[in-house]
Protein backbone atom coordinates (compact mmCIF):
# COMPACT_ATOMS: atom_id res chain seq x y z
CA UNK A 1 0.00 0.00 0.00
CA UNK A 2 1.00 3.66 0.10
CA UNK A 3 3.88 4.62 2.36
CA UNK A 4 4.27 7.94 4.20
CA UNK A 5 6.64 8.98 1.39
CA UNK A 6 3.92 8.36 -1.20
CA UNK A 7 1.56 10.85 -2.83
CA UNK A 8 -1.21 12.61 -0.92
CA UNK A 9 -4.86 12.20 -1.84
CA UNK A 10 -4.77 15.65 -3.40
CA UNK A 11 -1.76 14.72 -5.53
CA UNK A 12 -3.45 11.51 -6.68
CA UNK A 13 -6.56 13.48 -7.63
CA UNK A 14 -4.47 15.91 -9.68
CA UNK A 15 -2.85 12.96 -11.45
CA UNK A 16 -6.19 11.28 -12.14
CA UNK A 17 -7.55 14.45 -13.73
CA UNK A 18 -4.58 14.74 -16.09
CA UNK A 19 -3.60 12.86 -19.22
CA UNK A 20 -1.67 9.63 -18.80
CA UNK A 21 1.59 11.35 -19.79
CA UNK A 22 1.19 14.41 -17.56
CA UNK A 23 -0.29 12.36 -14.74
CA UNK A 24 2.82 10.22 -14.55
CA UNK A 25 5.05 13.28 -14.81
CA UNK A 26 3.29 14.51 -11.65
CA UNK A 27 3.47 11.15 -9.88
CA UNK A 28 7.06 10.34 -10.88
CA UNK A 29 8.92 11.68 -7.79
CA UNK A 30 6.81 9.47 -5.49
CA UNK A 31 5.95 6.60 -7.84
CA UNK A 32 8.32 4.11 -6.20
CA UNK A 33 6.47 4.64 -2.90
CA UNK A 34 3.11 3.56 -4.31
CA UNK A 35 1.51 0.14 -4.92
CA UNK A 36 1.56 0.96 -8.66
CA UNK A 37 5.22 -0.05 -8.86
CA UNK A 38 5.59 -3.73 -9.77
CA UNK A 39 6.52 -5.69 -6.60
CA UNK A 40 10.03 -7.06 -6.36
CA UNK A 41 8.55 -10.55 -5.96
CA UNK A 42 7.14 -10.36 -9.50
CA UNK A 43 10.33 -8.89 -10.94
CA UNK A 44 12.43 -11.58 -9.28
CA UNK A 45 10.13 -14.39 -10.45
CA UNK A 46 10.21 -13.23 -14.08
CA UNK A 47 13.96 -12.68 -13.97
CA UNK A 48 14.49 -16.15 -12.53
CA UNK A 49 12.27 -17.76 -15.17
CA UNK A 50 14.07 -15.89 -17.97
CA UNK A 51 17.59 -16.67 -16.85
CA UNK A 52 17.72 -20.22 -18.31
CA UNK A 53 16.47 -18.81 -21.64
CA UNK A 54 19.40 -16.38 -21.94
CA UNK A 55 21.81 -14.84 -22.07
CA UNK A 56 20.49 -12.09 -24.32
CA UNK A 57 22.40 -9.33 -26.08
CA UNK A 58 20.03 -6.35 -26.07
CA UNK A 59 16.90 -5.81 -23.98
CA UNK A 60 14.06 -3.28 -24.02
CA UNK A 61 11.82 -2.40 -21.07
CA UNK A 62 8.53 -1.31 -22.65
CA UNK A 63 6.81 1.47 -20.66
CA UNK A 64 9.72 1.33 -18.25
CA UNK A 65 8.56 3.99 -15.79
CA UNK A 66 11.26 4.55 -13.18
CA UNK A 67 13.13 1.47 -14.32
CA UNK A 68 12.21 -1.47 -12.11
CA UNK A 69 12.25 -3.75 -15.16
CA UNK A 70 15.59 -2.31 -16.24
CA UNK A 71 17.18 -3.98 -13.22
CA UNK A 72 15.81 -7.32 -14.45
CA UNK A 73 17.22 -6.77 -17.93
CA UNK A 74 20.59 -5.78 -16.53
CA UNK A 75 20.95 -9.27 -15.08
CA UNK A 76 20.09 -10.93 -18.40
CA UNK A 77 21.59 -8.81 -21.21
CA UNK A 78 25.27 -8.64 -22.17
CA UNK A 79 25.38 -5.60 -24.46
CA UNK A 80 22.64 -3.03 -23.87
CA UNK A 81 19.54 -2.26 -21.84
CA UNK A 82 17.03 0.36 -23.03
CA UNK A 83 13.97 1.77 -21.31
CA UNK A 84 11.23 3.54 -23.25
CA UNK A 85 8.39 5.50 -21.69
CA UNK A 86 6.05 8.33 -22.68
CA UNK A 87 6.60 10.19 -19.40
CA UNK A 88 9.70 12.39 -19.27
CA UNK A 89 9.21 12.68 -15.51
CA UNK A 90 9.37 8.93 -14.95
CA UNK A 91 12.49 8.65 -17.12
CA UNK A 92 14.17 11.46 -15.19
CA UNK A 93 13.52 9.70 -11.89
CA UNK A 94 14.89 6.47 -13.33
CA UNK A 95 18.09 8.15 -14.49
CA UNK A 96 18.54 9.87 -11.15
CA UNK A 97 17.90 6.64 -9.24
CA UNK A 98 20.62 4.92 -11.25
CA UNK A 99 23.05 7.76 -10.53
CA UNK A 100 22.19 7.93 -6.81
CA UNK A 101 22.02 4.21 -6.01
CA UNK A 102 24.64 3.05 -8.45
CA UNK A 103 24.06 0.37 -11.06
CA UNK A 104 22.50 -2.94 -10.02
CA UNK A 105 24.72 -5.98 -10.06
CA UNK A 106 25.04 -6.89 -13.71
CA UNK A 107 25.68 -3.30 -14.83
CA UNK A 108 29.31 -2.69 -14.22
CA UNK A 109 32.50 -1.92 -16.00
CA UNK A 110 31.88 -4.77 -18.39
CA UNK A 111 28.10 -4.84 -18.11
CA UNK A 112 25.52 -3.63 -20.62
CA UNK A 113 25.17 0.01 -21.59
CA UNK A 114 21.99 1.76 -20.41
CA UNK A 115 19.75 4.15 -22.37
CA UNK A 116 16.52 5.93 -21.44
CA UNK A 117 14.31 6.95 -24.38
CA UNK A 118 11.16 9.03 -24.39
CA UNK A 119 8.71 7.48 -26.81
CA UNK A 120 5.22 6.11 -27.33
CA UNK A 121 4.90 2.32 -27.19
CA UNK A 122 2.41 2.58 -30.06
CA UNK A 123 5.09 4.12 -32.32
CA UNK A 124 8.44 2.79 -31.13
CA UNK A 125 11.50 4.70 -32.36
CA UNK A 126 13.63 1.61 -32.98
CA UNK A 127 14.43 -0.89 -35.67
CA UNK A 128 14.75 -4.66 -35.07
CA UNK A 129 17.49 -4.21 -32.47
CA UNK A 130 16.41 -6.32 -29.48
CA UNK A 131 16.55 -9.95 -28.41
CA UNK A 132 14.26 -9.44 -25.42
CA UNK A 133 11.39 -7.06 -24.65
CA UNK A 134 9.79 -7.06 -21.21
CA UNK A 135 6.95 -5.04 -19.73
CA UNK A 136 5.57 -4.83 -16.21
CA UNK A 137 2.22 -3.41 -15.18
CA UNK A 138 1.64 -1.14 -18.18
CA UNK A 139 -1.03 -2.83 -20.27
CA UNK A 140 -3.98 -1.28 -18.44
CA UNK A 141 -3.03 1.96 -20.18
CA UNK A 142 -3.99 0.54 -23.58
CA UNK A 143 -7.51 0.02 -24.81
CA UNK A 144 -8.32 -3.43 -26.25
CA UNK A 145 -8.53 -1.97 -29.75
CA UNK A 146 -4.93 -0.75 -29.41
CA UNK A 147 -3.43 -4.18 -28.71
CA UNK A 148 -2.97 -5.22 -32.37
CA UNK A 149 -0.93 -2.11 -33.12
CA UNK A 150 0.99 -2.33 -29.85
CA UNK A 151 1.98 -5.95 -30.40
CA UNK A 152 2.91 -5.25 -34.03
CA UNK A 153 5.25 -2.52 -32.77
CA UNK A 154 6.93 -4.92 -30.36
CA UNK A 155 7.26 -7.51 -33.13
CA UNK A 156 8.95 -4.89 -35.34
CA UNK A 157 11.70 -4.08 -32.81
CA UNK A 158 12.61 -7.71 -32.08
CA UNK A 159 15.16 -9.64 -34.05
CA UNK A 160 13.98 -12.99 -35.47
CA UNK A 161 13.78 -15.41 -32.57
CA UNK A 162 13.54 -12.55 -30.07
CA UNK A 163 11.12 -12.81 -27.16
CA UNK A 164 8.43 -10.53 -25.74
CA UNK A 165 7.85 -11.46 -22.10
CA UNK A 166 5.50 -10.20 -19.40
CA UNK A 167 3.65 -11.53 -16.35
CA UNK A 168 -0.13 -11.75 -16.22
CA UNK A 169 -2.16 -12.62 -13.14
CA UNK A 170 -5.34 -14.67 -13.04
CA UNK A 171 -8.44 -12.50 -12.56
CA UNK A 172 -9.95 -12.62 -9.07
CA UNK A 173 -13.11 -14.66 -8.53
CA UNK A 174 -16.43 -12.85 -7.94
CA UNK A 175 -16.26 -14.12 -4.36
CA UNK A 176 -13.08 -12.10 -3.79
CA UNK A 177 -13.18 -8.48 -2.55
CA UNK A 178 -10.53 -7.70 -5.17
CA UNK A 179 -13.01 -8.61 -7.94
CA UNK A 180 -15.41 -5.92 -6.78
CA UNK A 181 -12.64 -3.43 -6.06
CA UNK A 182 -11.26 -3.73 -9.59
CA UNK A 183 -14.75 -3.68 -11.10
CA UNK A 184 -15.51 -0.51 -9.16
CA UNK A 185 -12.23 1.13 -10.15
CA UNK A 186 -12.81 0.46 -13.85
CA UNK A 187 -16.38 1.78 -13.58
CA UNK A 188 -15.16 4.99 -11.94
CA UNK A 189 -12.54 5.44 -14.67
CA UNK A 190 -15.15 5.00 -17.40
CA UNK A 191 -17.36 7.65 -15.82
CA UNK A 192 -14.37 9.96 -15.36
CA UNK A 193 -13.35 9.58 -19.01
CA UNK A 194 -16.91 10.17 -20.19
CA UNK A 195 -17.09 13.45 -18.28
CA UNK A 196 -13.54 14.82 -18.30
CA UNK A 197 -10.87 15.56 -20.87
CA UNK A 198 -8.13 14.63 -21.45
CA UNK A 199 -8.85 10.94 -20.76
CA UNK A 200 -6.75 8.92 -18.34
CA UNK A 201 -6.69 5.35 -19.62
CA UNK A 202 -6.19 2.80 -16.84
CA UNK A 203 -8.44 -0.25 -16.77
CA UNK A 204 -7.45 -3.26 -14.68
CA UNK A 205 -9.94 -5.74 -16.15
CA UNK A 206 -9.52 -5.03 -19.88
CA UNK A 207 -6.31 -7.05 -20.44
CA UNK A 208 -7.63 -10.61 -20.76
CA UNK A 209 -5.41 -13.61 -21.41
CA UNK A 210 -7.54 -15.05 -24.22
CA UNK A 211 -7.58 -11.74 -26.10
CA UNK A 212 -3.85 -11.29 -25.51
CA UNK A 213 -3.00 -14.73 -26.93
CA UNK A 214 -5.13 -14.12 -30.00
CA UNK A 215 -3.67 -10.70 -30.74
CA UNK A 216 -0.10 -11.87 -30.19
CA UNK A 217 -0.62 -14.73 -32.65
CA UNK A 218 -2.10 -12.30 -35.19
CA UNK A 219 0.99 -10.10 -34.81
CA UNK A 220 3.21 -13.04 -35.76
CA UNK A 221 4.27 -14.41 -32.39
CA UNK A 222 4.41 -18.01 -31.22
CA UNK A 223 2.94 -17.86 -27.73
CA UNK A 224 3.87 -19.99 -24.73
CA UNK A 225 2.55 -19.72 -21.17
CA UNK A 226 4.76 -20.57 -18.21
CA UNK A 227 3.49 -20.77 -14.64
CA UNK A 228 5.25 -18.70 -12.00
CA UNK A 229 4.95 -21.19 -9.12
CA UNK A 230 6.14 -18.66 -6.54
CA UNK A 231 2.59 -17.27 -6.49
CA UNK A 232 0.79 -20.56 -6.00
CA UNK A 233 -2.21 -22.13 -7.69
CA UNK A 234 -5.97 -21.70 -7.57
CA UNK A 235 -8.36 -24.42 -6.44
CA UNK A 236 -8.83 -25.61 -10.01
CA UNK A 237 -5.06 -26.11 -10.37
CA UNK A 238 -4.46 -23.10 -12.61
CA UNK A 239 -1.56 -20.81 -11.69
CA UNK A 240 -2.26 -17.50 -10.00
CA UNK A 241 0.38 -15.85 -12.16
CA UNK A 242 1.79 -16.79 -15.55
CA UNK A 243 4.62 -15.53 -17.69
CA UNK A 244 3.69 -14.98 -21.31
CA UNK A 245 6.58 -15.77 -23.66
CA UNK A 246 5.89 -14.57 -27.21
CA UNK A 247 8.61 -15.46 -29.72
CA UNK A 248 9.05 -13.67 -33.01
CA UNK A 249 9.42 -15.89 -36.06
CA UNK A 250 11.44 -14.99 -39.10
CA UNK A 251 8.64 -13.32 -41.07
CA UNK A 252 7.82 -9.65 -41.48
CA UNK A 253 5.59 -7.75 -39.08
CA UNK A 254 1.93 -7.77 -40.18
CA UNK A 255 0.60 -4.41 -41.38
From TrEMBL:
List, for all copies, the residue spans of the domain called Methyltransferase: 60-162
GO BP annotations listed: methylation
Q: Which UniProt keywords apply?
A: Methyltransferase, Transferase
Any one Pfam family match given in the protein's UniProt record, by short name? Methyltransf_25
Q: One GO molecular-function annotation for this sequence?
A: methyltransferase activity
Q: Which CDD domains match?
A: AdoMet_MTases
Question: What protein is this chain from?
Answer: Methyltransferase domain-containing protein
Q: What organism does the UniProt record list as the source?
A: Streptomyces lutosisoli
Lineage here is: Bacteria, Bacillati, Actinomycetota, Actinomycetes, Kitasatosporales
Amino acid sequence: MFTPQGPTLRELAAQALSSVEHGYDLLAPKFDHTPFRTPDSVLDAVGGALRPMGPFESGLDLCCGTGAGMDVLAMLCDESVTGVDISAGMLAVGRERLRADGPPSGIGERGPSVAWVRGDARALPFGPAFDLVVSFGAFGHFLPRELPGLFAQVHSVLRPGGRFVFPITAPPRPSSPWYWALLGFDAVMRVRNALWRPPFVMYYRAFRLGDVQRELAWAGFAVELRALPEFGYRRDGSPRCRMVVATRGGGATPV
